[in-house]
Amino acid sequence: MKSAIFVVLSIISAEAAKVHNITVSGTVTCAKHRQSNVLVELWERDIGGPIDPHDLLAKIHSDPLGEFRLAGEGKEVGLPPHFCSLVNLGTIEPFIRITHNCSTKEGCTRRTEFDIPQQHVNGQPYDMGFIILGDVQAKDETTCPP
């Protein structure tokens, strides 16, 4: 009986999953200079960890002018609207992760994350404009070799 309920719920969940899309563009800079060949990734935030890791939607390296444009889509299970508004479920939570070495010690790497506003999910592309990598952000992590 329990396995039958699990199968039915799995089918309902799969059918209720809605595809959401997001497009993001911008220009990466460091010390007032455009940065080429910088890794830019578009992610969808989940609970995290081994149970529900974040989903990589797209990745690209910035072009010679430091510009990038990414588009991706992700699925989230649709829930009743009154429940979704209470716990912010039913839509994707996209963010950009940029891996660079701006304002770091030699050999170190920084990983900087920027949340994408919800109004751009399934809407107009989000133009981040000039992204100044030298500024420390709330979600900023530096890794250096030992």
From TrEMBL:
<dbReference type="InterPro" id="IPR001534">
    <property type="entry name" value="Transthyretin-like"/>
</dbReference>
<dbReference type="GO" id="GO:0009986">
    <property type="term" value="C:cell surface"/>
</dbReference>
<dbReference type="InterPro" id="IPR038479">
    <property type="entry name" value="Transthyretin-like_sf"/>
</dbReference>
<comment type="similarity">
    <text>Belongs to the nematode transthyretin-like family.</text>
</comment>
<protein>
    <submittedName>
        <fullName>Uncharacterized protein</fullName>
    </submittedName>
</protein>
<keyword id="KW-0732">Signal</keyword>
<dbReference type="Pfam" id="PF01060">
    <property type="entry name" value="TTR-52"/>
</dbReference>
<keyword id="KW-0964">Secreted</keyword>
<dbReference type="GO" id="GO:0005576">
    <property type="term" value="C:extracellular region"/>
</dbReference>
